[in-house]
Amino acid sequence: MRIRPTARRTAAALVAAASLVAVAGPASAAPGSPGSPRFTDGSTSGGDPYFPAAGNGGYDVQHYGLDLSWAADGRLDGTAVVTLTATADLASFSLDLRGLTVSAVRVDGKPARYTQLPPGEDGRGGELVVQAAPKLRAGTTHEVTVVYGGYPGQPTDAEGALYGWVTFPDGVLVANEPEGAPTWFPVNDVPRDKATYDFRITVPEGKTAIANGEPVGEPTTTGGRTTFLWRATDPMASYLATASIGDYTATTRLGPDELPILDFVETGVTGDALTTTQASLALQPAMIDFFDGVFGPYPFTSFGSIVDDDTVEYALETQTRPVYSQVASETTVAHELAHQWVGNSVSPATWADIWLNEGFATYAQWMWTATRPGGATEQEQFDAVYAIPADDEFWSVVVADPGREGIFADAVYDRGAATLHALRTEIGDAAFGDLLRRWVTENADSTVTTADFVALAEQVSGRDLDALFTDWLYTPARPAGY
Ligand code: TRP
Ligand code: ZN
User: Fold this and answer.
1) 117 by DSSP, 3-state: which?
2) How far does the signal peptide extend, from start to end residue (predicted)?
3) Whole-prediction pTM value?
């Protein structure tokens, strides 16, 4: 079933329709004359150096309407309505999708021809290539419907960690970073192409489905199947989408300015893990208040946590609603919350820039810890990192370009955070505070590079910081003299 399109989409369609009338160049125009279309095949690469198979070229997505149906045997059936605007004259274009079989594609309601290209030898990629008829003119907006299904199972990332749509006996934990979204929906899987999302998730009666944003109405049950609607109206990178399914206990809290905090803890989380989790989640309003002061106002329409009783062995900052494996510790909750500003609203342009997520969220976590009774100061946490022996391989990672298998290396987190502390020591607390707020405010809902951060740091401080950033971000050795 189609999900009601958003007002944003309707407005975009109207603008696109207007521009279609305005441009010259009917198909009969002389080849090469101004305005005449030169239809090309959209690239199957989004251009990321670490993950070239992720993402695509020739269009920009505004909205995903995902209608998902999950069965207890692990089968996923989906209908995705992708609203996209062509950025080139397209004869064909591709969406990332792997491990699932497509049974129909429609473009603006008309059946379209398509082919599926399987993942490469490294297990990355997987493309749905759609032949558009009629072809798509640059600047026009279209609705692409993909009907698909299969058994996602337990997909793994380039380092072997579980990610994407991870099936467990009692449900599903969904954590896509970095390029796992195609394990459950057809997508332009690059952080640059942010979009809004609607979810319609149907599960066996008794199970609960939790996605990003807020619920729309009450769930409805017919024939032993329950349907949950969720809507995420803030622009979101595809690696931050989730649609987790399980047996949850729900708790609602209020954050600063009446921000809804919707928490879901699986019934299998018990004992010490539950005690720790509940204590951490109870601190979320205070943490939001604290990070509001550090970065500026919380960037999204709601927050809250999903705590699964199964594990992928990490937590992820899924937008508005982080997911945790088996327990949510206080420092991890602070970390995933901080990501809402640094990572989710302000996202890395390429995966090589991931320290802009992890270094920043780790430093924010250090700042939170420093506010706690008996908590280590930022300087003490810096000192603990700096005390790692110079010959430890920790120091061999180039933080601003850690390599495809290094994006989650400890150094990306801890040396990344230490970089920010060294910067703070160099430019002073006042300039550092201004820098963090300007970084987040000026880059809200977009993507950034390390060069952008260096430039803003130099502008805000009025200093040449080349030596500091070269030492900390670009040199595979322990910086001397800090
Ligand atoms: N980005 C997550 C965080 O820091 C961590 C993460 C995602 C991760 N995928 C991973 C860590 C794979 C280790 C392995 O909150
Ligand atoms: Zn993180």
Assistant:
1) strand
2) 1-29
3) 0.92
